[in-house]
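TA notes, week 10

Several of you asked for a full example with nothing omitted. So below is the full record: structure tokens for the whole chain, then the designed sequence directly under it. When grading your own attempts, check the secondary structure regions first.
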């Protein structure tokens, strides 16, 4: 099973399905993110956007370690945050591409070309090896043990 039942339910309520793909939106995002970031969108980031792009997943209440956190998958929400992405790309040792936001815009979600994810604003709040791990951590309120600075 890819996601635990409670996480699957939150995703399904948001409109996700295992076969979901929003290819036309990904093409639009590729173009818009290239102008934001200056480089083409990596394949792994485009793959995640194709499956989860446009979803707003609601999660609230106490979690396992921290509060459950709602998030939205839309790279255009990061426009205007070039400096923030540059700073955290340097801090995490990899170029971060915008993937969305969490906690009603309080936190940014970035992904590197390998699919590793970071949730950050004034510090890194969560770092995961995959987007699936990020989804599980946000919906369940799990604190990450991953630190992948340095590539």
């Amino acid at each position: 099973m890819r996601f635990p039942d409670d996480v699957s339910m939150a995703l399904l309520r948001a409109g996700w399905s295992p076969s979901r793909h929003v290819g036309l939106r990904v093409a639009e995002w590729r173009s818009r993110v290239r102008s934001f970031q200056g480089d083409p969108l990596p394949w792994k980031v485009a793959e995640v956007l194709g499956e989860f792009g446009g979803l707003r997943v609601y999660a609230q209440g106490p979690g396992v370690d921290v509060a459950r956190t709602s998030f939205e998958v839309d790279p255009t929400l990061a426009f205007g945050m070039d400096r923030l992405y540059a700073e955290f790309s340097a801090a995490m040792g990899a170029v971060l591409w915008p993937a969305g936001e969490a906690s009603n815009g309080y936190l940014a979600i970035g992904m590197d070309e390998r699919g590793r994810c970071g949730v950050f604003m004034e510090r890194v709040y969560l770092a995961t090896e995959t987007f699936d791990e990020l989804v599980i951590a946000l919906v369940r309120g799990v604190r990450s043990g991953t630190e992948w600075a340095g590539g």
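The beta strands are 56-57, 71-73, 97-102, 107-111, 117-120, 124-128. Use that as a sanity check on your answer.
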